[in-house]
Amino acid sequence: MRKLGLLFPGQGSQHVGMGRGLAGRFLAARETFEEADDALGFPLSRLAWEGPLEVLTATENAQPALYVHSLAVYRVVRERLGPVAAASGHSLGELSAHGAAGTWSFADGLRAVRLRGELMARAGDTTPGTMAAVLGLDEGAITGLCEGTAAAGMIVVPANLNAPGQVVVSGEAGAIERISCQAKKMGARRVVELKVSAAFHSPLMGPAAEAFREALEQTAFHRPEFPVVSNVTAAPVEEPRRIRELLVRQLTAPVRWMECVGRMRALGVERFAELGPGRVLAGLNRRNARGVPTVSLGTPESIDQMESAI
Predict the structure, then answer these.
(1) What is the predicted pLDDT for the residue at 310?
(2) Where do the CATH 3.30.70.250 domains begin and end in the chain?
(3) What is the mean pLDDT of each run of 10 residues along the chain (310 residues)?
(4) Which residues are designated catalytic?
(5) Residues of the chain with CATH 3.40.366.10
(6) pTM for this model (two decimals)
(7) Could you tell me which CATH class the domain 129-193 is placed in?
(8) Which of 173, 223, 251, 298 has the lowest CB atom count within 10 Å?
(9) Is 73 exposed, middle or buried (0-12, 13-18, 19+ CB in 10 A)?
(10) Which residues are bridge partners to 168 per DSSP?
């Protein structure tokens, strides 16, 4: 059997109805959503299944909903997937990867994810910012634009290094507007402002990171059952204290996604499974892992077809 890598999606992949079909079909998924409702003390499952969308999309709700959906999928399919060579997740998805790897208990991880979302939303209210995806320019050109804008006294950084020709910048609204204009003049194919509530993975998340650090010190961590590649270092991390440190740093550091996928390939991964709603990471793999089979598992139908897909 070819070595498997697990991918876990981040914020933006949520949608109303996520996980409802899984819970209706698979006992393990239904029990996962029930466990989440009990751990959080409110019906997250109802919010994920029925919305409304604007409430589900709020950072403090979207992040735990994604975590629960991804872990529900993992619990349903893990016996059918075979041994896992490595895992990683995009931003919030890295915390889901640790949930799958047993780095923390499902409930402890969920409570940490909920707090992470609350802290990030609060930081966005205190120090407003936004993000934009720049398509068609390389990382070096965008880094130069960010450095020039920072020299003019504005806060902006490359935040998500998603794929060749796709970099997301994050920072103050004025800085994003300036970079958008300059990037188009430099030949960017498109600049898309993201529908987010704050400047994630930027220095504006500093207050959230410090509060998250305090919370993680009170959370029990274990060595993961399989390698989990960090967004910050693009390398696997196993020691619990180091995992804590990197999950805190991740809030203000760029998501080095291209390198994460490359490192998983270097660890021997020959096929990928994206666990959770949507197909964002499978789409990025068309550039980040050309020719490597990648399947998205998030619905009963996709799970029914998984053997033939991977």
Answers:
(1) 60
(2) 129-193
(3) 93 96 98 98 98 97 98 96 95 98 98 98 96 96 97 97 97 97 96 92 97 97 98 98 98 98 97 97 97 96 80
(4) 91, 201
(5) 4-125+203-309
(6) 0.96
(7) alpha beta
(8) 223
(9) buried
(10) 133, 160
Model pLDDT, residue 81:
92
Selection from 114, 116, 113, 89 nearest residue 100 by Cα: 89
Yes or no: say if 8 and 71 are a contact pair by the CB < 8 Å rule: no
- Could you tell me the two tokens for 13? 């992949």
Q: What is the pLDDT at residue 308?
A: 57
Contact present, 302 and 34 (Cβ < 8 Å) = no
Considering only CA atoms, which of 83, 59, 12 is closest in space to residue 268? 83
Q: What is the CATH number of domain 4-125+203-309?
A: 3.40.366.10
**CA–CA separation, 10 and 1 (whole Å):** 28
- Please give, one letter per residue, the 3-state secondary structure of 101-153: HCCCCHHHHHHHHHHHHHHHHHHHHHCCCEEEEEECCCHHHHHHHHHHHHHCC
Q: Which of 9, 74, 92 is nearest to 226 (CA)?
A: 74
Angle at which helix 92-101 crosses helix 59-81, to 10 degrees, equals: 40
Please name which of 216, 7, 207 lies closest in space to residue 94, comparing C-alpha atoms: 7
The letter for the amino acid at 281 is L
